[in-house]
Amino acid sequence: MSKAKVLLKPSLFTTCLTTRATTFFSSVSQQLRSFSHQTEMDPSDSERYCYDPVLRWNPEVEDYFTKAYGPDHFARISKALTRPSSYSCIRVNTVKTTSDAVIEKLTKILNDSDEGLKLVQPDGSSPITKCQIPGLDYVVFVNGSGPHRIQYDFGLENPPKEVLVSRKCAEAVLRGAQVYVPGVLACTAHVENGDAVAVCVAIEQPGDEGDWSVNMTRGTTLQGLPTDPYYRERSGLYIGMGTTMLSRAGMFRVPNGIAVDLSNRVFRLPSLHNVLEGEIFLQNLPSIIVAHALDPQRGERILDMCAAPGGKTTAIAILMNDEGEIVAADRSHNKVLDVQELSAEMGLSCITTCKLDALKSVCLPNTVNDSTTLVNGDNSSFMTSHSELPSNEAMTSSVTSGRSEADKSCEENAKTEQPIGGDNVSQADIRKNKGRLKNGRGRTQSQGGRAGKSQGFAPNSFDRVLLDAPCSALGLRPRLFAGLETVISLRNHGWYQRKMFDQAVQLVRVGGILVYSTCTISPSENEAVVRYALDKYRFLSLAPQHPRIGGPGLIGRCEFPDGYIEEWLRPGEEELVQKFDPSSELDTIGFFIAKFSIGPKD
């Protein structure tokens, strides 16, 4: 296999931080270490009935990352990615409540829960604490624990009954979810409601043609013996013991519901789904840091280019005390509705949403056609504002109060117009109408939601822009499989991110701020994009970030066998970005943040 050549500076793998950042890092690391794995796996446990996954990568990608980070460092990153963070990070909605009130409510809720998560640390302290980073006292950490040793209490001659779940299901379970029916792939024979079962994971295996698949039909019967063709594949992939809520027949007959109540887990994290809705938002710590790096000010106009599901958008709005204008754009209609719903739930009125492809964010002259309606004479086409959606009840009504007369006139004309070709309707339209009749109303019609469609925005029309770019997501955890990404696909991700950056940089006014972020460990999507931006746009400069708790970026470049050269950061630039390492003591997801100041564009 051909190897990529990487040229690195000696300081690449250092974790040096500024003096102030070191203080932050030490205090937060000490705080988060108290959450870390309290019960380690016993080496004497069976090698089979344990949780010890090996993250599988495309060989060329593995070689690329090994060269970039070093063999030992990348091995630590890979192992960390297979495990969830040892704590849940909660952002408190300070528009509605306070951190102290949330801590009091969560303590009562979790102590009263039947999950067995009694909130008592070995030293008697509470595991629900405020973040110690200055300015982030509205962030609350909730302790989890693991990996725990699971007592299966079965010998090899009498193996436990098993339920095999999909990888996606297992990743959710490791974060605290239950085992739901759609995630069950296979089961031991003669499993009845109320049986004790071991839950294991099916992970994609390499195929004969270089592809990856599970190679299992849903409903397969597991034997639990070495003669089972899937026996070896499940070794080291057991995530806990639980009690079945359905029989085997029920698991593959009903469409939804809980299949296994997983009471004894390898990792124990509190499930906070639907808890204190509107008051708290579960969010990874680096995603909260992004909003602070943007440093939004009250009264400013800010664009979140790829806003869904709205976590960073609402974080920015809270930092602005809900004063100003935030335009939240996304190319997906349904995702725009998600942002609308979250903003209304959190009681935020400064967020305006629109459907817009990030690659077409700039509105150039002569691009506005007759189907676009301008509102208040500005450069924005119709968008849905949450000042008109103060409650969930308002979400169920049609959002039309902010529409202009031109909007209404265009719709009336559309109703009376015939399709091209007179009375002749195309076969495509006939099929589309049949599908609508068969499938019923879509999400937009059934919920009354509407996502305004934008034609883009005028250059220099925003004070600050956040580009949290779509990426390979190779920093998200827990992750049990990473084999689909290739060196070429990572390079293509970077190409699209550069195109989005080209749009973003035009929209920020001189003197403004542009923040670029991803949730991946891939240098081609992080440092290489920063290098591209600084080389192409000489008026850009990297700006300091506060708070700074992440590590430095990568210095150097990578030379690939096909002649492609990937440039990364240069000496002095590495300390101006934040790179969050999943294997570090902060115990976060893999993440990257770069902040740019916009100088005179001429």
TrEMBL record:
Renumbered residue ranges of the record's region Disordered: 374-457
Bias type Basic and acidic residues, positions: 404-415
Annotated keywords: Methyltransferase, RNA-binding, S-adenosyl-L-methionine, Transferase
UniProt domain SAM-dependent MTase RsmB/NOP-type: residue ranges: 213-599
Residues that bind S-adenosyl-L-methionine: 306-312, 330, 357, 468
Signal peptide coordinates: none
Catalytic residues identified in the record: 519 (nucleophile)
GO terms for biological process, alphabetical: methylation
Biased composition (Polar residues): 374-403
GO molecular function: methyltransferase activity
Similarity-based family: Belongs to the class I-like SAM-binding methyltransferase superfamily. RsmB/NOP family.
Protein name per the record: Methyltransferase NSUN6
Name of the gene encoding the protein in the UniProt record: LOC104739211
